[in-house]
Design goal:
Oligomer: single chain
Structural class: alpha/beta
Helix content: 40-55%
Strand content: 35-45%
Shape: globular
Length: about 140
């Protein structure tokens, strides 16, 4: 099952059973963060984990409010495997602020890594998902 949408805020795609692919466009504001990550959080309800593949190659920054909302929405999801790819050094720093802040407050329910290329991010994320056992996926 797949659910894909493209809009001015970015792109969102759910791929069953537990993968969400997001691509941010332009400078991310609160509405954009709520739209894309909110949709992911809604889709993640009831899943044992969510594998987030995030493309930041077209992201042009993020407002402080969007970073706060993003971290809040990430924490609302079940166990998270987050693979971020693309983007400049500055873009990766912005994304890392949000992802690592969420990870620090996740009680061990999130792992993340950053990659230059999409294929590397996907391979890492799928390898991480393959190592999950049932008890870890349900906690």
């Amino acid at each position: 099952m797949s659910d894909a949408r493209r809009g001015t805020t970015g792109e969102y795609r759910f791929v069953a059973p537990c993968t969400v692919q997001i691509k941010f466009h332009g400078k991310i504001d609160e509405a954009q963060a709520r739209s894309l990550l909110g949709r992911a959080a809604e889709r993640a309800v009831g899943l044992p984990y969510v594998l987030l593949e995030v493309d930041i190659s077209e992201m042009a920054g993020a407002s402080p409010e969007s970073r706060r909302i993003s971290a809040e929405l990430l924490r609302s999801m079940p166990y998270r495997i987050i693979a971020v790819h693309g983007g400049s050094f500055a873009q990766r720093i912005i994304a890392k602020l949000v992802v690592k802040a969420s990870e620090m407050l996740s009680d061990g329910r999130q792992i993340s890594s950053f990659f230059e290329h999409e294929a590397d991010a996907q391979a890492w994320a799928r390898a991480q998902a393959a190592t999950l056992d049932e008890p870890a996926m349900r906690s």
